[in-house]
Amino acid sequence: MRSTIALSLILALGVHSRALGWHARAITERDLASNATYDFVIAGGGTAGLTVADRLSETLNVSVLVIEFGPFDQREDEVMIPGLFPAIPYFWLPLMSTPQTALGGTSYTVPCGRVVGGGSMVNAMFMSRGSAVEYDTWAQLGATGWTWRDLLPYFRKSETFNRPDPIYAAEHNITWDDSVHGFQGPVPVTIAPYDYPGSANFYNGARSLGIRAPKDSQAGDATGIYRLQRAVDAKTQARSSARVNHYDRVIDTRPNYHVLPSTAVSKVVFQGTSAVGVEYINTASGVKGTVHASKEAIIAAGAVHTPQILQLSGVGDASYLSKFGIESVADLPGVGQNLQDHLVLSVGYNFTSNLFPNGGSLRTNSTYAAEQRALYNAQQPSAYDLSTSTGNLFIQLPLSNLTNASASIISLAETRDPAELLGGNPDPGVLQGYKKQRKLIISSLNASGVGDISWNTDFATSLYMVKPLSRGSVRINSTDVLTAPLIDFGAITDPTDLEMLLAVYLKNRELMATPDIAILSPVETSPAPGLTDKDAIKDAIKKTLTPTNAHHCCTAAMMKREDGGVVDPQSRVYGTKRLSVVDISAWPLIVAGGPMGSVYAAAEKAADTIKARHGLL
Ligand SMILES: Cc1cc2nc3c(=O)[nH]c(=O)nc-3n(C[C@H](O)[C@H](O)[C@H](O)COP(=O)(O)OP(=O)(O)OC[C@H]3O[C@@H](n4cnc5c(N)ncnc54)[C@H](O)[C@@H]3O)c2cc1C
Ligand SMILES: *[C@@H]1O[C@H](CO)[C@@H](O)[C@H](O)[C@H]1NC(C)=O
Ligand SMILES: *[C@@H]1O[C@H](CO)[C@@H](O)[C@H](O)[C@H]1NC(C)=O
Ligand SMILES: *[C@@H]1O[C@H](CO)[C@@H](O)[C@H](O)[C@H]1NC(C)=O
Ligand SMILES: *[C@@H]1O[C@H](CO)[C@@H](O)[C@H](O)[C@H]1NC(C)=O
Ligand SMILES: *[C@@H]1O[C@H](CO)[C@@H](O)[C@H](O)[C@H]1NC(C)=O
Ligand SMILES: *[C@@H]1O[C@H](CO)[C@@H](O)[C@H](O)[C@H]1NC(C)=O
Ligand SMILES: *[C@@H]1O[C@H](CO)[C@@H](O)[C@H](O)[C@H]1NC(C)=O
Ligand SMILES: *[C@@H]1O[C@H](CO)[C@@H](O)[C@H](O)[C@H]1NC(C)=O
Ligand SMILES: *[C@@H]1O[C@H](CO)[C@@H](O)[C@H](O)[C@H]1NC(C)=O
């Protein structure tokens, strides 16, 4: 304890930790002197926060503190073994949405990780990239320098792609393209070496409908049918979270990289408009403190909590914040607007002649489960390599491949009044940005993913509508960081989104009717068995869908300030100095697949930008 105090004092006095010979580690709030200073303080130790912390601390004379709301995990089986995920204790519970107006006033759980590693610690581990046109659209909205071409080097830098065994790959129609992958980065990207026989039925059924099989889904066109790539260690098949690949990997060589867990950042401290540090509160003891950031404060608290921290700090819609007595530092009405997520619809089936084993066998057959667990423990291909209840194959389709009704859906979208969709009286800048977004989205509906279909060979098929035109919001309802903000998904407030989900649903029916899948005798059990009337099906879908796939994003968008943007292309918050946002909040638009691959790549790019402006590259 004595030496800990001595070290904190040295730190507080601004002596750089290189000389100290101590190791990167978890610190407690007692280890921080009352007025400690770091070069960079990062709020949120999730996927993006730990990526940026790792890169900034590569320069050993630069000190970095990450403050994370949640604890460190204990490498529990539910954390490490894909077939046992998710680790419920590390979720943010309870966290609920506001009643969804277009969904009969229902409130839904908001899934978020609250742990060192954030979402990467509790998620299904899929490492996807969007299609080139999706990032190019970001650039068109003001994220200059963030096109697919600009990001590709960072996708490569972020990962080590593990080529699958060639014999297994050939048997399972797995192909890949070395030229788009990285082979020296921190995040291992692996294709599971195990699959259920029913996957062949799914694959062949999709192919019989003319769905393409790309050489590699990560090459800039993510449409088609393919096996999912995942952030999993190739040898052990254990989860590689950001905690593993951007903290554990480097801690022995980074005396300058600290993580303070179980502590909430409650606000950014400003001198004028310059961020000079953050205030924090220990979530167990309630002890509060301040830590200084001599170079920058960096926000990476995820799409729900980044806008909360900004608003609590006086960065947001000044008139809204004044209702809480919060003095405005930067009047940015876009903070907390532009919330987007994927819609999820689970379609239940009774496969009266399913194959064995299948995605349900671990649950229903304890002999099989024990056999598979022994194989997993022996590092042999095993059903536990697959993420619980999720499919291993993925179909992603543009609108015109989902439905013959694409032209009418598009013209329906064009007739909507954007101002009304944003609640009737939106901020003019936010409205202008939304109008630009709608134009670009509508014109690319035939060119990149709109609907996704995944079947885990068990009783449910998961459908996703991934190009939402509806917008939600995150707004504080209290000046206390420990009180949840108001999270409104705004789900299907633009009814076009429901039409597009219906198209995915009907496409899935077509797929289930192909001879390859029909041989398994699927009988729909929910949400609309036997229904053929489209309005009746839509009603049934509305009652069953979930407005989030935990892919919430875009609440501090990198767009032009006059279009409701919050950060500039260098990730700096408009109207402030020394304040950045580096997480999924900064995306202008959601991408069609899982976000984690793009979160890692975008954080790599943001870290480079930050290093460049401080002469650290
Ligand atoms: C159950 C689940 C399954 C998912 N499955 C997939 C998948 O298979 N593939 C995929 O691509 N994506 C998936 N995702 C989404 C993906 O994990 C997220 O998009 C990604 O982690 C976002 O990264 P981030 O760094 O922006 O935020 P996060 O990873 O969420 O990190 C934010 C961190 O900030 C912390 N924080 C919040 N407020 C404060 C505060 N006031 N002070 C300090 N710290 C704070 C949080 O505790 C959290 O650790 C899933 C997410 C969940 C929850
Ligand atoms: C705390 O540290 C900051 C910056 O290092 C300094 O400006 C300030 O005077 C210090 N305050 C106290 C009370 O020591
Ligand atoms: C760290 O070293 C680099 C050059 O090696 C220098 O440019 C930078 O100012 C130093 N940073 C600090 C915080 O001392
Ligand atoms: C691979 O594709 C061939 C047809 O090209 C098909 O016969 C086979 O069933 C497929 N196997 C899997 C596992 O998808
Ligand atoms: C969509 O349809 C077009 C035209 O038939 C085809 O060329 C393309 O490969 C299809 N896309 C997918 C993802 O299957
Ligand atoms: C599912 O199939 C089994 C026979 O395999 C049958 O007994 C059962 O009633 C079916 N359930 C539904 C909901 O159709
Ligand atoms: C259960 O699993 C065992 C071991 O794989 C297998 O031999 C058996 O046939 C399975 N039982 C059923 C009912 O599928
Ligand atoms: C469009 O209709 C034709 C003819 O009925 C059908 O063959 C085709 O699969 C449909 N296309 C889509 C994308 O549903
Ligand atoms: C999308 O494709 C459909 C069918 O091919 C076509 O009618 C429509 O004009 C296309 N829309 C756009 C915006 O490309
Ligand atoms: C928001 O705050 C008000 C005032 O404290 C309270 O009455 C209301 O219940 C809160 N709303 C939610 C959803 O917590």
Ligand types: flavin-adenine dinucleotide, 2-acetamido-2-deoxy-beta-D-glucopyranose
Helix/strand-derived class?
Answer: alpha/beta
The CATH C-level name of the largest domain is Alpha Beta
Provide a count of the helices.
Answer: 21
Topology (elements, then pairings):
Elements: H1 2-12, E1 25-26, E2 37-43, H2 47-56, E3 64-67, H3 77-80, H4 119-122, H5 132-140, H6 148-158, E4 159-161, H7 166-171, E5 187-189, H8 198-208, E6 224-227, H9 242-248, E7 257-260, E8 263-271, E9 274-282, E10 288-299, H10 302-312, E11 315-316, H11 318-322, E12 330-331, E13 343-351, H12 361-364, H13 366-377, E14 393-397, H14 399-402, H15 406-415, H16 418-421, H17 428-443, E15 451-455, E16 460-465, E17 473-475, E18 486-488, H18 496-512, H19 515-518, E19 522-526, H20 534-544, E20 579-581, H21 596-613
Parallel strand pairs: 1-7, 2-3, 2-10, 3-7, 4-5, 10-20, 11-12
Antiparallel strand pairs: 6-14, 8-9, 9-10, 13-16, 13-19, 14-15, 15-16, 17-18
Helix pairs in contact: 2-9, 2-21, 6-21, 18-20
Bound molecules: flavin-adenine dinucleotide (FAD) and 2-acetamido-2-deoxy-beta-D-glucopyranose (NAG) (9 copies).
Keywords:
single chain; alpha/beta; FAD/NAD(P)-binding domain; Glucose Oxidase, domain 3; 2 domains; 16% strand; globular; binds flavin-adenine dinucleotide; binds 2-acetamido-2-deoxy-beta-D-glucopyranose
Summarize the structure.
The protein has 617 residues and is an alpha/beta fold.
Notes on the structure:
By secondary structure, the chain is α/β, with parallel strands linked by helices. The chain folds into 2 domains: 2-74 and 243-339 and 557-613, 3-Layer(bba) Sandwich (FAD/NAD(P)-binding domain), CATH 3.50.50.60; 128-241 and 341-471 and 491-544, Glucose Oxidase, domain 3. The chain is 31% helix and 16% strand. Strands 1, 2, 3, 7, 8, 9, 10 and 20 form an 8-stranded mixed sheet that branches. Strands 6-14-15-16-13-19 form a 6-stranded antiparallel sheet. The protein has a two-stranded parallel sheet with strand order 4-5. Helix 2 packs parallel to helix 9 (242-248) and helix 6 (148-158) packs across helix 21. Mean pLDDT is 95; it is low at 1-23. The protein binds flavin-adenine dinucleotide (FAD) and 2-acetamido-2-deoxy-beta-D-glucopyranose (9 copies). One 2-acetamido-2-deoxy-beta-D-glucopyranose (NAG) binds next to loops.
